[in-house]
Write a structure and sequence with these properties.
Blueprint (H helix, E strand, L loop, with lengths): L1 H32 L3 H14 L4 H13 L3 H14 L4 H13 L3 H14 L4 H13 L3 H14 L4 H13 L3 H14 L4 H11 L8 H11 L3 H8 L4 H13 L6 E6 L5 H6 L3 E8 L2 H8 L6 E4 L2 H7 L4 E6 L10 H9 L1 E12 L8 E3 L5 E3 L1 H10 L2 E14 L2 E12 L2
Parallel strand pairs: 1-2, 1-4, 2-3, 4-5
Antiparallel strand pairs: 5-9, 6-7, 8-9
Helix pairs in contact: 1-2, 2-3, 3-4, 3-5, 4-5, 5-6, 5-7, 6-7, 7-8, 8-9, 9-10, 10-11, 17-18
């Protein structure tokens, strides 16, 4: 009788525990639906205390940890989720995302393909495989993957945009524009689709959307330097340093330097030797993380450059902007606000892409970047109180194995 009572007690506790876990999972889903990841994570951790192999808790907690940058923890949770449910395409896809985020490209592609083998009509895994193929310059295979993702989900916005970019890289501007239009038919306010469609239609805009620029550089931060320097022949930081050399030699003590759009710190390397205080600003959080690894900046800020300039109380002797104005058409707000953050006789140095026509102040090109005329730079420099000290024509970088022509400028505050 006692033995039977104990058995029944264990069975009852198991039923109660299962019922409690089901309720907790429902609560966690509810918290995720309102973006309360902190509370959801607490619930999942409690569930795993009761049921260590709960797939949903392992997988979703992994996604939360990944979103918070805890990639090693996320990887461990995804592997436990796969151990719990070996045929889960979602867990393999998520594990692929961790490999992708840590730049383990081959492993990421292998995991995405495993997810697709388990669930052939899995649009997210197909899209993710496409991004890896795209990143590794397997453009045609990426196009196939994006198209398969869209076949599974015809309203997949990011797939339309990435397919458009890939088609542009293959020289199919018409197909690319159709992709951007399809994206805009789903969401007319989509910043990336708006910007890229405008660039192909010849529409003039004042600046690239911040969301677009942030995403562009967040996605390429890991491979940025290798791609830009080794593959595209980028050397603007050294060109600007040489342009400034006759003037910075006159500094008798370390100066206050602001590196706008600092990226991974290529320009900062050129400036560290003269800077008493070196400040870097970039819209991309991932770029800031890469630049931190160099250990050359005194402070770094992940924010919009105009917002930073307008809010800072610091005053700078030298402000540089390498490959920054190519994402901004109307640069007058930067000239105006930067002036307020500069000491008397301070220097402003930057690079510009040359337009195919000198009739317009600036032009949004098919590349999605802006080109500015010299006449425009000369006019707004004079308007806002700068003297043009030096300019030099230069090759900015390669695109499709063709050099993009441009020039570098050095301006000085008049008083």
């Amino acid at each position: 009788m006692n033995r039977n009572n104990r058995r029944q007690g264990r069975k009852l506790r198991k039923i109660v525990s299962g019922s409690s876990i089901a309720k907790d999972l429902e609560t966690a889903r509810s918290q995720l639906s309102i973006s309360n990841q902190t509370r959801a994570a607490e619930i999942y951790k409690n569930i795993l205390q009761l049921k260590p192999n709960c797939f949903e808790a392992l997988n979703n907690l992994g996604m939360i940890m990944q979103a918070q940058g805890e990639l090693a923890v996320a990887e461990r949770l995804y592997r436990l989720a796969i151990k719990s449910e070996p045929n889960s395409a979602e867990a393999y896809n998520n594990l692929g995302n961790v490999a992708n985020a840590t730049n383990n490209i081959d492993k990421a592609l292998q995991l995405y393909r495993k997810a697709i083998s388990l669930k052939p009509n899995y649009p997210e895994a197909l899209y993710n495989a496409g991004t890896v193929l795209h990143k590794t310059k397997n453009i045609r295979d990426a196009v196939t993957a994006y198209r398969m993702a869209l076949k599974c989900n015809p309203r997949f916005l990011d797939a339309y945009c990435n397919l458009g970019i890939a088609l542009q890289e293959l020289g199919n501007s018409t197909g690319a524009l159709d992709c951007y239009k399809n994206a805009l038919a789903i969401n007319s306010d989509h910043p990336l689709a708006q910007h890229l469609a405008s660039s192909l239609q010849g529409n003039e805009t004042d600046t690239a959307p911040l969301d677009y620029v942030e995403r562009l550089f967040d996605e390429c931060a890991e491979n940025f330097e290798h791609s830009l320097v080794e593959e595209l022949g980028y050397s603007i930081p050294s060109v600007l340093r040489n342009l400034m050399e006759p003037y910075i030699r006159k500094y008798h003590e370390p100066v206050n330097v602001l590196d706008l759009g600092c990226g991974t710190g290529l320009m900062g390397v050129q400036l560290r030797s003269i800077a008493g205080n070196l400040v870097g600003v970039d819209i991309s959080k991932n770029m800031i993380l890469e630049s931190k690894k160099k250990g050359i900046y005194d402070s770094l800020y992940a924010t919009d450059i105009v917002k930073f300039i307008r809010q800072t109380e610091d005053r700078f002797d030298l402000v540089v902007a390498t490959d920054v104005f190519v994402y901004i058409g109307n640069i007058e707000p930067i000239f105006e606000s930067t002036l307020q953050a500069m000491n008397p006789m301070a220097l402003l140095s930057f690079s510009i892409e040359s337009p195919s026509s000198i009739e317009k102040d600036y032009t949004l090109q098919a590349s999605g970047r802006y080109a500015h005329s010299r006449a425009y730079i000369e006019r707004i420099a004079k308007q806002y109180g700068y003297i043009i000290k030096r300019t030099t024509p230069t090759r900015i970088r390669k695109e499709n194995n063709i050099w993009i022509e441009g020039y570098c400028c050095l301006l000085q505050v008049t008083s």
